[in-house]
Design a protein that fits this description.
By secondary structure, the protein is an alpha/beta fold. The protein contains 15 helices and 25 strands. The chain is 28% helix and 21% strand. Strands 1, 2, 3, 4, 5, 6, 19 and 20 form an eight-stranded mixed β-sheet that branches. The protein has a five-stranded parallel β-sheet with strand order 8-17-9-10-13, with no helix packed on it. Strands 14-15-16 form a three-stranded antiparallel β-sheet, with no helix packed on it.
Length: 561
């Protein structure tokens, strides 16, 4: 197989991948990277999800990059098209389009200790050919809403009409006068049903468990406000901060303490009152969850409740057990006529490639996680035994109450990844790896904090291991702590292997020690008379050579090979 090389390979051309690429250029003037994406166009989840009614459920003011805010959204909760156009504009403005390779998919990755490089196997989806791309740094910017979850239903392959997952929607589908079956009742179902109700002959929605609904105040943003935001950046910044703090108040309801219980009770009461005010009485029992508020993402109602009054709409908790050529059969024995089946069944969280990423000594991610007891990553981005590998929006980065872009910016390119990977990108270090004890401490801290919330055994869902209650999705702390933890990383939690010949730095309790190559060869201790060592804390005027190897935060463990 042919082999290519770049210093950095980024997987995924959604918000995370594009943001990282832009920040590498903005902050480090670094351009030796390539982005691979299996889609037909850049955009990630906003490119693949094009079903009718698709849109964002976070106020648009807070759903753009902090360093490149968008003042042109036409409504508080804009549709998918506007989000995608904004992201494409970011990529075009910063001239990264030429570095994106579409219709390519990474199949596996293997770390080479000898070369300090990742060997990444990539497949061209147009011709099926595979090739190897080597890189110093591998970054997975693949989001969680990537791989659709398909239910196992007997006979579904015999259905004569289209069977479509919302994430694989083709805009050429014609639903005019069709009898539509919708399976699922998450966010995508609540968006697609109001968007198609006027065209179809009937809709029958099969649900498994109720959801919490709250009203969506989706008002338009007129030209005057858009002009004010565009020409008064301070006003837009102030609006973003207001939205940030309003969203952050919802965090309290996730905790099991008394204040959290009161917050949940208040939110549940508001949701129930809204449902009883907005939905037909015959459906109240199907719209009243028995699990805690916070176990699932709340759904902003954008005319979904209104569709329940439409005589063409049927909502049922009956389950589909089989599919015929033009009908579906439910568990109660009732047969429903069907011309079109929509699967609004969510996603598989398999984006981390647990069985096909191999670190030091050939260990796979799955084997690494088995040792820990569950899927995890230090600060959500890195793992011991996997040098120079970073995940953007990795394990335990999920935020159920605020903008995912905030988490992505804090956790990924803006603060943490660029800071810790900078010595590699500048050619001063060969590899970086989080220390095992730091990863273990972080993992224990996160899982311990999650046990104090409703996000573990009290409400098991797709984000948790059903056997152990291990939550691999949620970040249990405040957004402020998230920002502080990534803005000021603890550099002593990382081990660097430097590539500069002649000297090595190692961190001891008392400070840094510089040792000569001859001393290392003879294995003499740093206290001997032949050493040219100095303790960093005692050096008032360090030499340029020493200073060149020191990062901004003087707490690093460095090993020279």
């Amino acid at each position: 197989m042919p082999t290519l090389y770049n210093d950095v390979v980024i997987i995924g051309a959604g918000f995370s991948g594009i943001n990282l690429a832009c920040q590498l250029q903005r902050k480090l003037k670094f351009t030796d990277y390539v982005i691979y994406d299996r889609g037909y166009e850049l955009g990630g989840t906003w490119s693949s999800n094009k079903y009718p009614g698709c849109g964002v459920d976070i106020p648009a003011i807070f759903y753009s990059l902090s360093w490149f805010p968008n003042a042109n959204f036409t409504s508080l909760f804009p549709p998918q098209k506007e989000i995608l156009e904004y992201l494409q504009h970011v990529a075009q403005r910063h001239k990264i389009i030429s570095r994106i390779k579409l219709r390519t998919e990474w199949k596996s990755a293997q770390w080479s200790e000898k070369t300090s490089r990742w060997h990444i196997v990539v497949q061209d989806l147009e011709n099926g050919k595979t090739f190897v791309h080597e890189a110093k740094v591998l970054v997975s910017a693949v989001g969680g809403y990537t791989n659709p979850k398909y239910p196992t239903i007997h006979g579904i392959d015999t259905f004569k009409g289209p069977v479509v997952h919302t994430a694989k929607w083709n805009q050429e589908y014609d639903l005019k006068d069709r009898n539509v079956i919708v399976i699922g009742n998450g966010c995508s179902a609540s968006q697609v049903i109001p968007a198609i109700i006027d065209d179809v002959s009937s809709i029958t929605q099969f649900i498994r468990s109720p959801q919490y609904y709250i009203p969506m105040p989706n008002f338009g943003i007129n030209r005057l406000w858009r002009a004010l935001f565009q020409y008064t950046p301070l006003l837009l910044m102030l609006a973003r901060w207001c939205v940030f703090w309003v969203l952050e108040t919802a965090l309290a309801q996730f905790y099991e303490d008394k204040s959290g219980q009161r917050a949940r009770q208040n939110s549940v009461r508001k949701s129930q009152n809204y449902v009883r005010k907005s939905a037909p009485e015959r459906y109240w029992s199907l719209l009243s969850p028995r699990y805690d508020m916070g176990c699932k993402r709340r759904i902003l109602d954008n005319k979904y409740m209104k569709t329940l009054y439409d005589p063409k709409m049927v909502l049922t908790k009956d389950s589909v057990i089989s599919v015929g050529s033009n009908s579906v059969l439910s568990a109660s024995g009732r047969e429903y006529t069907a011309d079109f089946i929509i699967l609004a069944t969510g996603f598989e969280f398999t984006q981390w490639q647990a069985d096909s990423v191999f670190g030091r000594n050939g260990i796979s991610l799955k084997q690494h996680w088995d040792k820990f007891g569950g899927i995890e990553a230090y600060k959500t981005i890195a793992m011991n035994e996997f040098p120079n590998l970073f995940y953007l929006l990795g394990p335990n980065s999920g935020r159920g109450h605020t903008s995912v872009l905030y988490s992505m910016e804090c956790i990924s390119s803006v603060d943490l990844v660029i800071q810790v990977a900078r010595p590699i990108l500048e050619g001063r270090a060969a590899s970086i790896e989080v220390r095992k004890d730091a990863e273990e401490d972080w993992c224990n801290t996160v899982q311990g904090a999650l046990k104090q919330t409703v996000l573990t055994k009290s409400c098991l869902n797709q984000f948790s291991d059903p056997k152990t209650g291990w939550n691999f999705f949620s970040y249990p702390f405040s957004s402020v702590s998230l920002w502080l933890g990534t803005r000021f990383p603890v550099m002593s939690h990382w081990s660097y292997r430097y590539c500069k010949a002649g000297f090595a730095l190692k961190y001891y309790d008392s400070g840094f020690v510089l040792r000569s190559k001859a001393e290392r060869r003879s294995k003499k201790k740093s206290e001997t008379s032949n050493t040219i060592a100095r303790v960093w804390s005692k050096v008032e005027n360090p030499s340029p050579l020493l200073a060149k190897h020191i990062l901004s935060a003087p707490r690093i463990q460095v090993v020279m090979f």
